[in-house]
């Protein structure tokens, strides 16, 4: 796998080595050994999958400690714009984001470390989205910020009138008004 660094430290794009022939293709979608060596040592404990249609926007979500999560995300079918926002107070990149298009054709994966809010918008008619988490889902630890916060300047690549949100995602605070954020100087991976 090739690890592509982004403008925010720790947020990376992973491009697999694809083997194609007349029968189709093969690639190794995850290797714990290679991930630990090239990205960071992580122990993933939960895999999730969602199916969505064009215009669905999920985010921007995170989990607070002690249930903070890293995510390794990818698309099995369709295309999304996947976004990670740095919400670590004191970080030199606080409030900045990385956006990457993940598709069934490019087979890219996106690693979002702890301390970031995550979301995606569906660009294709339908998408099947999979992700690994390094901590279990804990509803009492949920946090989120508004997907359309003007300070974040995220172009979700969907007209606003076509965005489809859950009822919960319609009511998240702006980053400036968030009651809880991560501390850049805290080790979020300390056991």
In words, what does this structure look like?
The protein is mainly beta and 191 residues long. The chain has a single domain, classed as Jelly Rolls, CATH 2.60.120. Helices cover 4% and strands 40% of the residues. The chain has a 6-stranded antiparallel β-sheet with strand order 1-2-11-7-13-5, with no helix packed on it. A 5-stranded antiparallel β-sheet has the order 10-8-12-6-14, with no helix packed on it. A hairpin with a 6-residue loop joins strand 1 and strand 2. The active site is at residues 61, 131. This is dTDP-4-dehydrorhamnose 3,5-epimerase. Homodimer. Belongs to the dTDP-4-dehydrorhamnose 3,5-epimerase family.
Taking pLDDT < 50 over at least 5 consecutive residues as the criterion, the unreliable ranges are none
Structural class: mainly beta
What is the H level of CATH, i.e. the homologous superfamily? Jelly Rolls
CATH top-level class: Mainly Beta
CATH architecture title: Sandwich
Radius of gyration, CA atoms, in whole angstroms: 16 Å
Question: Into which percentage range does the β-strand content fall?
Answer: 35-45%
The first-to-last residue Cα distance is 28 Å
> What is the strand arrangement across the widest sheet?
1-2-11-7-13-5
Output the helix-strand order: EEEEHEEEEEEEEEEE
What's the number of structural domains?
1
Work out the helicity level: under 10%
pLDDT averaged over residues: 96
Categorize the overall geometry: globular
Outline the biggest β-sheet: 6 strands, antiparallel
Q: What is the count of β-strands?
A: 15
What is the tally of helical segments?
1
Protein name: dTDP-4-dehydrorhamnose 3,5-epimerase
Keywords: Isomerase
Active site: 61, 131
Site (Participates in a stacking interaction with the thymidine ring of dTDP-4-oxo-6-deoxyglucose): 137
């Amino acid at each position: 796998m090739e690890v592509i660094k982004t403008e925010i430290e720790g947020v990376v794009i992973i491009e697999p080595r694809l083997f194609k022939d007349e029968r189709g293709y093969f690639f190794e979608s995850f290797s714990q050994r290679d991930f630990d060596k090239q990205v960071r040592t992580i122990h993933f404990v939960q895999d999730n999958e969602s199916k969505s249609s064009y215009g669905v926007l999920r985010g921007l979500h995170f989990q607070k400690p002690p249930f903070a999560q890293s995510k390794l995300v990818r698309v099995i079918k369709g295309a999304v714009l996947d976004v990670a926002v740095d919400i670590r107070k004191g970080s030199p990149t606080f409030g900045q984001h990385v956006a990457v298009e993940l598709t069934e054709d490019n087979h890219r994966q996106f690693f979002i470390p702890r301390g970031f809010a995550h979301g995606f918008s569906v660009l294709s008619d339908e998408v099947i989205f999979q992700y690994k988490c390094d901590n279990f889902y804990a509803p009492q630890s949920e946090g989120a910020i508004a997907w359309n916060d003007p300070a974040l300047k995220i172009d979700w690549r969907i007209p606003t009138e076509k965005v489809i949100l859950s009822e919960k995602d319609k009511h998240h605070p702006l980053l400036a008004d968030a009651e809880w954020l991560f501390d850049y100087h805290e080790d979020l991976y300390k056991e």
